Amino acid sequence: MAVEIRELECFLVLADELHFGRTAERLYLSQSRVSQLLQALERRIGGPLFERTSRRVALTPLGKEFLVSLRPAYVALERVVENAREHATHGKGRLRIGFQGVANDEILNAVAAFQSDHPNCLIETCELPLNDPFGALRRGTIDAAVVLVPVAEDDLVVGPVFSTHPQTLAVCTSHRLAGRTTIEAEELAGETLIGFKGPAPGYWRQAQAPTQTPGGALIHRGPEVQTFQEGLSLIAAGHGAMLVCQPTAAYHLRSGIVSIPLTGVPDSGLVLIWRRGEETPSLKAFAAGL
What we know:
The protein has helices spanning 5-17, 20-27, 31-45, 61-90, 105-117, 135-139, 202-208, 228-236, 246-251, 281-288, and strands spanning 50-52, 57-59, 93-100, 121-128, 144-148, 156-165, 167-172, 183-184, 192-196, 220-225, 242-245, 257-263, 268-275.
């Protein structure tokens, strides 16, 4: 049976006052209403909590045991409500944001802007494994994540688009396409693309390393890696190519590898996601600022 908060509050005040009249005054209730609430609670519990006579009110042994257990739990509940109120009115607390790849200027600027507007809320960032975009979010170690699209998970909410950028093809300098200024998607036919292994769903891994061109021609599935750095090492060794968005390609530019603009494929996008039903005031404020 569901316990009413008002019944518990009545019990705690009566345990302090040991007087029905003073309890009624503190709770702004009639004495008869205090009696009704107490009787309802005793029925739920299955035994008397107070000994009541015409001269005195005293806790029964059951009442004393119930009081010892209830008081700290009730205080904790009050603290939860108060913390929620503070979050709603002042944005206090902590917001943990995970991100895939590089914490570029767009991410850092969004974090800095939020921190400036909400000085009472500490925002923390951490890098997510490139092959596991959703794991940390589901484990509860972060509150939201900035991840590569697509995202089609029933338990996750897809928020605002964080940024979109054109795709490039990263290849070694000896690759047949290395000297090109642009590449059309159909020219990936017969190429080998490095993909990602791990817990990421198949549709997400397929988007990062497609096995067909838009026209249906075969693209070979190459080695699978867990991190971007592993992929770069394989590219430099001539074991395949990777789809990489322009900012990431520029940030990770290294000798032996070139990135060439790729047309005919969707842009690479980053979106903010969070667990369904767990949108806090701080998270709402952060999402609204993107």
